[in-house]
Amino acid sequence: MAAAPAQLFPEFIVDTLGLDSVIGEVAASLVAAFVVGNIILAFTGVAGPWAKRKITAAFTDRIAVNRIGPYGLLIIPAAAVQLLAKELIIPEGVDRPSWDIAPVLLPASALLGFSVIPMGQLGPINLHLADPEVGFALVFAFASIASVSLVMAGYASNNKYSLLGGLRAVAQNLAYEIPLIVTAMSVVIFAGTLQMSGVVGAQTETLVTIAGVSIPSWYAFVNPFAFVLFLTANMAEIGRNPFDIPEAPTEIVAGYQTEYSSAYFVLFYLGEFVHIFLGGAILAVTFLGGASGPGPESISFIWFVVKIWGFFLFTQWARAALPRVRIDQLIEIGWKGMLVLSFANLVLTAVIVGVIA
Amino acid sequence: MSLERPDTADDAAIERTPDELEALLGDLVVGRDDHLNAPAFVIRPDTVQETLRTLKEQAGYDHLSVVSAQEYENRYESIYHLKKYDDPTQEVSVVVPADKDDPVSESAEPVFRTADWHEREAYDLIGIEYDDHPDLRRILLPETWQGHPLSMDYDKDRPQIATLPEHANPLEDHHKDAESDTMFLNIGPHHPATHGVLHLKTVLDGEQVADVEPDIGYLHRSEEQMAQSGTYRHQIMPYPDRWDYISAGLLNEWAYARAAEDLADIEVPEYAQVIRTMGAEMCRIAAHMLALATFALDVNGDFTATFMYAINDRERVQDLLEDLTGQRLMFNYFRLGGVVWDLPEPREEFFSNTRDFLDQLPESIEEYHNLITSNEVFQMRTIDTGILPPEVAKNYGATGPVARGSGVDYDLRRDDPYGYYDELDWDVVTEDGCDNFSRLLVRMREVEESAKIIEQCVDLLEDWPEDERTIQANVPRTLRPDDDTEIYRAVEGAKGELGIYIRSDGTDKPARFKIRSPCFSNLQTLPEMANGEYIPDVIAALGSLDIVLGEVDR
């Protein structure tokens, strides 16, 4: 067994600063949440205006932003100013306040997911806000709220393209969330717990040792089939190519976000990126041993960052290379293919675990 | 006439003399008005369908290239230019005069579906009305336009009002349905995948398309009228570049050059023909590369790598064309009787650049096959979607890769040879799938054929004796073709049969200049492909048609 998990982040603050009162604990929790939230937002800030462009450019033989600042990095503040300085256009007939709530709800739901993700340690700090016993169920619940936001945006925009995008988002999320969760359940059967720290902890044991290198029992190695299933369903869940149907810019303009501009557009954009990172985080926790990796425990946060950025890179690669499936094909793959496979995986896992244990 | 010939469709391919055709048509013919390219029979305005049906079913003229209409001092006139898909050198024109005061003539739409749009255009621009036409509305100009711009009494100073509400919400009556719930959706004129300012009036049943109607004319620039106010010798040639502006410029210039040279009886030196052939095929590669690029964009989604790769290859062809013509898009390189200047010096450098490009081309094509055509998701998306059966394609006058993707073996470069094509070794590409995938595949394979042609041209040009490099024939400074001479000539443009009809009136400017745009006819097939399919398939079908709105609207 690995070393006992360090204190959670809010508890660490409470202990370090000696805040014993209830108010102190609440304040410490808020501070911790603020820090974690900003880390994620910083990722998004780098990913959206800069990394995404650079990655896509690398895939398509281009250079992309390179004029402002070193490696074009100052495009990030420039883009922020530019996007926020635009006029917020509110089309006639939009259904307020749901039209205003939707863009807030999307990033909020995705950020909420990070509250239970163990993001590894950075020095003495364990970047993990809460570790409830049902953490695993919670993270999927939070991530699913995103589809509510998309439907709200699609319906409230009073635009037919938005409506189509919203409807597609629901259909897609229904079709892929079930396989996603059923596949995750097979991991829960292995780990025997819904607690995030438990799932991560179960993956620290050594699976095999080849030529002196010990391979940890990450569930991606234990059950690669489930990993591929989960990865695919995850791509659909976060709506990236080849499953970017709810936006599908060449078909339905921009889907649910067609009518959004300025700050609202930024919020949607932000929400999508946070959602990608959340997808990466869930994948890392479920199949890639969470924040674990070579080296001391105290830098494991770096491994976590590497894993979620690796997933981000993967989504961008898929975007540059893969054709988009059609909506009916997507639904068919989801209900007729993925669902069956994920249940088969679940039953097999249950049998195997039952026989061995 | 009692001599009713017992003709059947079996001997449709047999070439008939004009007199035999006249005998076949019998009483329908009221006169002869032969054009330079074909015999022309004058008929009464109420026998259009009968005449065309006889010619189509009994004599095998199954391709209505274009309907050109014009107004004379004493009458209106519609000309139906007919050809055979099997042998486009067999041509016949049917001339339908209409009354000056009440220009009404029978519609050919029941015989040739393609006549639908062509007659709407004639109505829109000239003012001839067609009886029995299913949907005689304006097509290029707004519904509220007053007058017909190419008619003689058109007042061009009159202010026109094109109101937006008049133009929006056109399907109020037919998207209300008690049986099913449908939704009307405007796709375009500003939409990421309409390839320009095209407006698709779409009725959706869920995600499926119940009805789609292309609404064109947003890019109408009076190209025909501009050509009519330019002199043959110099002032018209720059315009063709601007029809299909997707770097198919030389192919378009050739259409005008061919028509005008045949009209004025100009012989083009062989050396110039080889240069023309080479340049035109470079343009075809550039145009097909863009078609491939944008099709990948439509199916894969924006940010696909294939788009940039194909644009990159197109860029290399454009570099060659820039060396050759001095321009990258609007070449203005052809002249009546030849080309404007010889190959760039040093010639060896140009040849080696061209060969370098041709050498790396197979590698690029291989990469496109790896990236898209052999991708299973891509195949799932494009195979068996956007079906266009060959008979339907012919009925709509579809040509070019669209027709060849439906197995219609029709390529004017081979079937109605011009330039240097008949001296070279290359093949016409056809695919039998009739779907989006086949049309893409035809374009990709045609790029390879074009490369073969260019290579042979480079070989020829390299060895061409220095004292025989005549780039232009001796053409008079001012051309005045004989009065009332008419000609229709077509070339194989990047998108299909690009034809020009010219009527001269003895002056140095054409009296009527009509452009037969392949995109115009091809776009008309979109509803056939799209109805019943999903929205993404409509977008893919539109992409596979490879239209350029500049050429559709002219």
TrEMBL record, chain A:
Sequence intervals crossing the membrane: 26-47, 68-85, 134-156, 176-194, 206-233, 266-289, 301-318, 338-356
GO molecular function, one term: NADH dehydrogenase activity
Chief subcellular location: membrane
GO BP terms, alphabetized: aerobic respiration
Subcellular location, record wording: Membrane
Topology in membrane: Multi-pass membrane protein
InterPro entries associated with the record: NADH_UbQ_OxRdtase_su1/FPO (IPR001694)
Pfam annotation, one family: NADHdh
GO cellular component: membrane
UniProt KW keywords: Membrane, Transmembrane, Transmembrane helix
PANTHER family tied to this protein: NADH DEHYDROGENASE SUBUNIT 1, NADH-UBIQUINONE OXIDOREDUCTASE CHAIN 1
Protein name: NADH dehydrogenase subunit H
UniProt organism field: Halorubrum sodomense
Lineage: Archaea, Methanobacteriati, Methanobacteriota, Stenosarchaea group, Halobacteria
From TrEMBL, chain B:
Name of the featured protein: NADH dehydrogenase subunit C /NADH dehydrogenase subunit D
Gene3D superfamilies for this protein: Cytochrome-c3 Hydrogenase, chain B (1.10.645.10), NADH:ubiquinone oxidoreductase, 30kDa subunit (3.30.460.80)
Residues in NADH-quinone oxidoreductase subunit D domain copies: 304-554
One GO MF term attached to the UniProt entry: oxidoreductase activity, acting on NAD(P)H
PANTHER family reported in the protein's UniProt record: NADH DEHYDROGENASE [UBIQUINONE] IRON-SULFUR PROTEIN 2, MITOCHONDRIAL (PTHR11993:SF10), NADH-UBIQUINONE OXIDOREDUCTASE 49 KDA SUBUNIT (PTHR11993)
Subcellular location, principal: membrane
Keywords: Cell membrane, Membrane, Multifunctional enzyme, NAD, Transport
Summary of subunit composition and partner proteins: NDH-1 is composed of 13 different subunits. Subunits NuoB, CD, E, F, and G constitute the peripheral sector of the complex.
Bilayer topology: Peripheral membrane protein
Domain NADH:ubiquinone oxidoreductase 30kDa subunit per the UniProt entry, residue ranges: 42-157
Similarity comment: In the C-terminal section; belongs to the complex I 49 kDa subunit family.
GO cellular component, one term: plasma membrane
Keyword Protein transport: no
Subcellular location: Cell membrane
Reactions this protein catalyses: a quinone + NADH + 5 H(+)(in) = a quinol + NAD(+) + 4 H(+)(out)
